[in-house]
Design brief:
It contains three helices and 17 strands. The chain is mainly beta.
Length: about 270
């Protein structure tokens, strides 16, 4: 179900995890996506797929993009003026309290104890400001990942898949204390999930193989073994979301595309 529909026909779906919120918006030409100072006390991401153009404004600054780009929007008032019909994806921390209550799955995240606390890392070296990254400028030959972070969020915008994933080269893994959001932006995926056994057999769960077409968000709990399999023919786009940012990725020099803008906490550096 839609979370809400604008008078111009733009449709919005809000989903959440323990520490982050995602809004997927099917916009119209001239749709305006706004946040006010009272709503937004920290940064958030705006992801524009290919062929979705927008002008993003914040604190007197204005940047236009023709699509396939990522914005980091600073705290305070902001607007994204969409220039054509298309999809827009926004990722917020749980500090956007108004959005938590709007999420269609809001009741699923009550009384969680196994998820890492969301703590702010140091402020950007050049202060809070509107930032824009054209994704084609961050393609590397040694990885399919394109990682960006804010003070309390990390996003991994994978290179588009050019073929269905080789079933002999899947990468099942788990995370001990944080969730992963796998956001399908284009194409179709199967999210394979295996739940750990506990001493209480009544808590055991069967493996899950969730077929998810874009746009969709799969929130993977801590300790659940998982891997995502692209099953479309070409152009599949998947985005992983972490809150707080992953320490292991952040400690690998050069892996996070905007690492020079966002310093690490002292305890992580040491």
């Amino acid at each position: 179900p839609h979370t809400w529909i604008d008078p111009d026909g733009a449709e919005h779906w809000v989903t959440r995890a323990a520490n982050f919120v995602v809004i997927a918006s099917r916009t119209k030409k001239n749709t305006v996506l706004s946040r006010t100072t009272s709503q937004q006390n920290d940064e958030y991401f705006i992801l524009l797929p290919e062929n979705t153009a927008a002008i993003v404004c914040s604190n007197g600054n204005k940047i236009q993009s023709d699509g396939d780009s990522l914005f980091i929007v600073p705290p305070g008032d902001s607007q994204a003026h969409i220039l054509n019909d298309g999809w827009v994806f926004r990722v917020f921390s749980k500090n956007a309290k108004d959005l938590l209550a709007m999420a269609m799955n809001c009741q699923a995240w009550e009384n969680l104890s196994d998820v890492a606390e969301l703590l702010d890392w140091p402020t950007p070296v050049d202060g809070f400001k509107l930032r824009h990254y054209q994704l084609k400028d961050y393609v590397r030959s040694d990885t399919t990942m394109r990682l960006f972070r804010t003070r309390n969020l990390m996003i991994n915008i994978f290179l588009p898949s050019v073929a269905p994933r080789d079933i002999r080269k899947l990468t099942p893994h788990s995370h001990p204390d944080y969730e992963q959001g796998s956001l399908a932006v284009h194409g179709a995926y199967i999210h394979h999930l295996r739940y750990p056994w506990t001493p209480d057999m009544t808590e055991w769960r069967e493996d899950e193989h969730i077929v998810a077409s874009a746009p969709s968000l799969c929130v993977i709990p801590p300790n659940v073994i998982h891997t995502s399999q692209a099953v479309g023919e070409q152009g599949m786009r998947l985005v992983d979301i972490f809150a707080p940012p992953r320490k292991d990725f952040s400690l690998k020099p050069g892996l996070v595309c905007n690492e020079k803008e966002y310093p690490l906490p002292a305890d992580i550096q040491s």
